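Design a sequence for this backbone.
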């Protein structure tokens, strides 16, 4: 039977409806590296940001020449659609070791500017597949006590490039709204940051950014990402933005209900902002939130949180 023709008003509604999810650019990690280098200038954590910029450059090299692929079979992708599950579900794929060649490839490309980095890289090189798998599961579960903090950025970077590469290779229509809320509809990982768009039909909309694969998906504004409450939400910014908080490019959405906060990037104030780099460069905001009694629940896989 032929498809039913759409009425004019249906065509108009379809054209004005923003996409539910978007994939990251193919140069994701190169763009992150460039942004981190820029943010490092005159930053109190400049050396750290430059170190991670180099790590992102290595990620881009692996992305451009992937040693393997996590992409599931067409049958598994069909099952995921049928059962409304993330097509790159991290809970299962992280235990299947298809990401480990990405770690080996990344380790070959990372520069070692100091002994601490060299020691962390050696720990990852010498670990067997089972140990690496256990560390990866702990990292993605947020169990930082189960692994050395020094290996977190490099292990996290390998996981990111493996899942981002698979996301870009997914057939069209694979990522759909599965009612995942604050968890990525592509891989099931928690969101890292949110972005408030500023152009076209997406102006004013909030998209969450996955901490693992960098997929972005729509999530309504003025609602706590962690508990869905809209009651008494308020916003905090860096001390440097105290004179114009409504223009601050990055703000923490604070929820008194669950005592958590979530960082938001406002692209009308900084069109070039990028989630991971902005998060790392604004750790002073995390310190302020901690002092005010709010807890961070959003992970950044290139950063091991303090006690």
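Sequence:
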């Amino acid at each position: 039977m032929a498809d039913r023709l759409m009425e004019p008003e249906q065509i108009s509604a379809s054209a004005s409806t923003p996409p539910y999810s978007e994939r990251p650019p193919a140069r994701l990690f190169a763009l992150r590296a460039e942004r981190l280098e820029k943010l490092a200038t005159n930053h109190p954590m400049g050396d750290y940001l430059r170190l991670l910029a180099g790590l992102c450059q290595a990620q881009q090299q692996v992305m451009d020449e992937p040693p393997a692929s996590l992409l599931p079979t067409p049958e598994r992708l069909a099952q995921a659609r049928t059962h409304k599950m993330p097509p790159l579900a991290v809970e299962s794929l992280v235990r299947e070791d298809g990401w480990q060649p990405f770690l080996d490839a990344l380790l070959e490309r990372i520069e070692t500017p100091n002994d601490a980095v060299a020691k962390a890289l050696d720990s990852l090189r010498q670990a067997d597949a089972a140990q690496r798998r256990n560390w990866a599961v702990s990292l993605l579960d947020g169990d930082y006590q189960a692994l050395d903090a020094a290996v977190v950025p490099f292990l996290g970077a390998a996981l990111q490039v493996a899942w981002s590469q698979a996301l870009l290779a997914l057939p069209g229509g694979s990522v759909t709204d599965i009612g995942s809320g604050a968890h990525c509809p592509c891989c099931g990982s928690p969101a890292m940051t949110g972005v408030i768009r500023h152009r076209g039909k997406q102006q004013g909309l909030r998209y969450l950014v996955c901490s693992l694969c960098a997929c972005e998906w729509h999530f309504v504004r003025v609602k706590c990402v962690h508990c869905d409450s809209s009651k008494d939400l308020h916003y905090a910014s860096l001390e440097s933005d105290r004179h114009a908080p409504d223009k601050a490019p990055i703000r923490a959405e604070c929820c008194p209900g669950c005592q958590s906060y979530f960082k938001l990037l406002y692209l009308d104030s900084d069109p070039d902002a990028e989630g991971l780099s902005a998060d790392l460069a604004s750790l002073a905001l995390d310190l302020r939130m901690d002092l005010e009694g709010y807890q961070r629940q959003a992970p950044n896989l290139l950063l091991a949180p303090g006690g």
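Strands lie at 21-22, 191-196, 206-210, 216-218, 234-237, 250-255, 260-266, 295-296.
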